[in-house]
Amino acid sequence: MTARPIPEPFENLHDRILDVVGEEGVVAEAGEMARYLAEERGRFVGKAAFVVRPANTREVAEVVKLCAEAGIGIVPQGGNTSMVGGSIPFEEGDEIVLSLERLNRIRALDADNFTMTVEAGVILQEVQQAAAAADRLFPLSLGAEGSCRIGGNISTNAGGVQVLRYGNTRELVLGLEVVLPDGRIWDGLRALRKDNTGYDLKQLFIGAEGSLGIVTAAVLKLYARPREIVTAFVAVPDPAAALALLSRLRGASGESVTSFEILPRLGLEFTLRHIEGCRDPLEAAHPWYVLVELFGGREDGGLRELLEEALAEALEGSLVLDATLAETEAKRRELWRLREAMSEAQKFEGGSIKHDVSVPVSSVPAFIAEAGALVTELIPGCRPVPFGHLGDGNIHFNVSQPLPEAGGDFAPGKAAYLARWDEMNRAVHDLVVRRFHGSISAEHGIGRMKLAENERFKSAVELDLLRTVKKALDPHGIMNRGKVV
User: Fold this and answer.
1) Distance between alpha carbon 472 and the CA centroid of its chain, in Å?
2) I need a labelling partner for 101 at 20 to 30 A (CA). Which of 27, 92, 381, 464 fits?
3) Where is the FAD-binding PCMH-type domain (predicted)?
């Protein structure tokens, strides 16, 4: 294909960057650039002068140095799976996108130290597989793991389904290599559990969404591979019962509960209706479900019996209405598919207004009830689908548009419904923060979408601290400008 003309102000920079990264390292044709400029939901579609794809840390540093000299903004990008527009440039076209996809080497794996050193462009699933091949576990697990890249996971402090036991990405990183906004390289690739020699600088870049520097490599923390995995799909009468069951299982299992996901019946119906190969795992319909998984260190170590006994006791006490345990790995994957496909299934039900929020675990039942009442008062007939990580208090409070009283079309119409996105977000976020002292972004970040909302809830002191850090590390504001801060 013939490359489109480079915008005149960028011609010299383009040529100098081309000298650094070579032909393979620059994408300038509009069709080839398209996948770097839009996010999956279609809410953000930006423009860029061109896309740069460095092959190593030195090339990243040289590109950043050239952009710093020219005062050109850089949008770092991993797998481009951001839910908040954090990896998408703005519409003016006066930035470049810097993709880390070619930095895809696993540099080292130290099984005895339980660490792995990887470059930022390695796909999360490949990190998991490399750990498993060494009889180790890298526990970060989320729906996009087949396409998201570890640098993006680090830069957004990704969460996922095993935070309850292993923590967010922040807890899984021991060291970082970062290209700073002036092109210098900070080598903080330390594989140490204890290093009390000053500020923990890596924490500045974890969750910063590329606004303070570009993560190019990381030392990741590994764990013993579980020998026993027990998974159950459990029907419960309401979220309060689910919470009580979580407390009971954590105590009975000695904190072996790895995942504890809550799903409403409506969300399950969406999945069964629209996702091929999914089937209802229980004979009767129930109002709420939890998907619970326990990891153990011994094969046939008694976790299954423990879970069966705990569920039987909960059944007698009316905390549980029904349950099924996965007998095989194939069955386990079927159960997890019901949870993982829930976001995808909502696309077929018209417009869906999303919220990625967290509240204290103990407040989840009250939040779900009050938020449901709030949005149905705001838009009568809308269909709340709250689901997600009850074990760590992170609920994806998605709300599908209303259905008409009769007929097959959605009402009031997808465009009209989605036009009220900001209005609903504002109402739900007010409830989350002011009533429950929660967070408006539990695991997706701030990016472009939540910038104004974030500033609405941060105190003047906190905003001043954030801006002071930003100015100190990126005084010319070239790193992912207009995001986070």
Assistant:
1) 27
2) 92
3) 44-225
Q: Which amino acid would we find at residue 244?
A: A
The whole-angstrom separation of Cα 160 and Cα 188 is: 26
Query: What does the DSSP 8-state code read for residue 431?
Result: I
Distance (Å, whole) CA 479 – CA 470: 9
The β-bridge partners of 109 are 116
Specify the DSSP element, H or E, that contains 310. Answer: helix 303-316
- 335 and 354 in one domain? no
Q: Which CATH number goes with the domain that contains 299? A: 3.30.70.2190
Give residue-wise pLDDT tens across range 218-240. Answer: 999 999 999 999 999 999 999 99
Q: Which amino acid is at 69?
A: E
Residue 454 lies in a domain: no
Residue (of 99, 81, 205) closest to 148 by Cα position: 81
86 vs 334: CA distance, rounded Å? 32
Q: Is the pTM of this model over 0.90?
A: yes
Distance CA 140, CA 312 (A): 31
- Considering the domain boundaries, does residue 466 fall inside one? no
What are the Cα distances from residue 70, in Å, to 14, 67, 210, 211, 213?
Answer: 11, 5, 19, 18, 17
Biggest CA–CA distance in the chain, Å, is: 74
Interval 344-392: pLDDT, tens: 999 999 999 999 999 999 999 999 999 999 999 999 999 999 999 999 9
The count of other CB atoms within 10 Å of the CB of residue 40 is 12
> In the sheet that 106-110 helps form, which strands lie side by side, from edge to edge?
106-110, 115-119, 214-221, 173-179, 185-188
